[in-house]
Design goal:
Blueprint: H1 7-16, H2 23-33, H3 39-45, H4 47-54, H5 56-65, H6 68-81, E1 84-87, H7 95-98, E2 106-111, E3 119-124, H8 131-146, E4 149-153, H9 159-169, E5 175-177, H10 191-199, E6 203-206, H11 218-229, E7 232-235, H12 243-253, E8 257-260, H13 271-278, E9 282-283, H14 287-293, H15 307-316, E10 321-322, H16 323-330, H17 334-347, E11 350-354, E12 357-360
Helix pairs in contact: 1-2, 4-5, 8-9, 11-12, 16-17
Length: about 375
Amino acid sequence: MLKVYNNAELCLIWLDSFNRLEYKHKLQVLKIIKGAKSISEALKENRDKLILELGAERYSILTCSATPVYFKFVMDGLKSRGITAVTLESEEYPKDLAGLEIPPLVLYAKGNLSLLKGKLFSIVGSRKSLPFSIGLAGQIAKNLSKNGFTIVTGIAEGIDKAVIDGVLETNKAPVSVIAGGFDNVYPAVHKNLVDEIIKKSGLVLTEHTPEVISKPYFFPIRNRIIAGLSRGTLVVIAGKKSGAIYTAEYCMEYGKDLFAVPFNPGVLSGVGCNDLIKRGAILTESHKDILEFYGIEESSPVLSLSEEERAILAVLAESETHVEKIAQKLCKKVVDITPVLSIMEIKGLIVKTGVNVYGVTVNLEE
């Protein structure tokens, strides 16, 4: 069902359509046109003030665009793309975002907006991630999703993709926040992933109008939305300068719960996580740590494991291990355990961390 917008919402959609107008200038214009019966008249009445603040060229663009024809052009553009605009004046606008220092004036959405009312929790990490971290991210996302959380992440390769795949495996739906307009999903290879999220009743959000192309500095700014939407954030893997650190910083600034996966000393791709733990982030080795923090009793059934799978998990619980060493410890041939390892990978119990080297992604239940 198409959303019917009130005048206050339409006012913000119109104002946000001017991509070359800086945020601070949009706020200045908003103060003048908010509640006005006619945007055109309000602009004319404040001509001198607006020219002084915005410049003559920007003022001219605004006044020339304060017409029914331009309004229709903007709204038709959203409608034809299947985009719903959630403005600061909309009932659906998340309260946590509204309280930010720089809240998006408009969230452009595709998918199931009711997810914004759920128990939102974000999982983030580096694009270039260790195989073990990718497996762990997917496993944690899957288990949190099974236990009532709506998972929020980005749309990048690595951790974001693993998180989305993990949630979709449970027949639940994630929320993905992208850093450009819907016409220019980045990376382009993930346009199909956006479509799949929407098809599976998930939600994709952006603060940018459809035609905007992603720029490098959009991503750290985008991360304030991920952190702002969520009651807590888990950083699965992050180097010292990883974009995930921006999300963590916003999380701390907003007083949200911050979690981080620990790494061995000397692992550069995990330096950022260890630093966050030193600064107060909650050390997290599995989804159980997060559930325990929130006082949630796990509702997922215990995995049914064969004796052979349990034996392999017991070996891997000690450390990441080469397939030949696993076979040696179990007194079996490599050819005999290889099919079992493949099945365990599919189940998400283990992950390859190197050439024929495996690590465990779950704790062995006694």
